[in-house]
Here is the input.
Amino acid sequence: MEKQLKQFLKFLENDKKVSNNTLQSYKRDLEQYKNYLLTNDIKYNKVVEDDIKVYIKYLLEEQNKKTSTISRMIASVRSFYQYEVKNKKVSIDPTENIQSPKIEKKAPCILTTKEVELLLEQPTDEDLKGIRDKAMLEFAYATGMRVTEIISLNVEDVNLEQEYVECKTGKKVRDIPLGKMALSAIKEYLTKARDIMVKSDKEKALFVNMNGKRLTRQGFWKIIKYYQEQAHIDKDITPHTLRHSFATHLLQNGAELKAIQTMLGHSDISSTQVYMQFQNDGLNNIYKKAHPRA
Here is the structure.
């Protein structure tokens, strides 16, 4: 099975052009599946539907995996077997009729506008790090971009004159407007901090760490956590929290769902509709202020 796994991962990397994060996720899921088969003396090309069901039960009851994690792991196994069937390495796909465990959809963590203001007030412009952090937080809230998209940006992707950022995700490109607060913070960062932080002209990254290299996901996460503690906000804030808050606040202030979908880069509007559940309070406030009999 080791040889087949290597071929499949190579196929994902070279033919499917998946991101490195996605590739590593497949690798982890399939390594665990391979080890499970070895432990139970099961040949991968002899696996049947019942074996997959037992594996799901094992992940759920013995490994205490979340249903969302199990669904992803089974999806990885399914993709592997589909590849093997296509290449005539196995005769049947044992996952074909398998239904992944139902995922309990949790409401995303949303900050109130006051909490956002409090968070964004924490970085000061007293040093290079504060200037960068202020720009980064303002930018994240202003654009609703994913953390991977933000750390992948180059300076040339931001158009200060026309006030937008060009976000590239694979072959897809979307333009996202920049508000005046984010623009001001980015301009200050580019003129007063970044050039000093960067050690080489070859570095194109928009946001860099204190060593002048492209900022990482972990670096971004630590910065968010630091300012959460500084602001004494009890909610568990992650970089994605600012994305959720961006979408919710736009919706509450009258933006169309389709426009929010475009800015977030959702291919399916159902992914954007999750924010509708937070619209009621905004509508209720508007109703109470505007309706003569409210």
Notes: The chain has 13 helices and three strands. The chain has a mean pLDDT of 88.
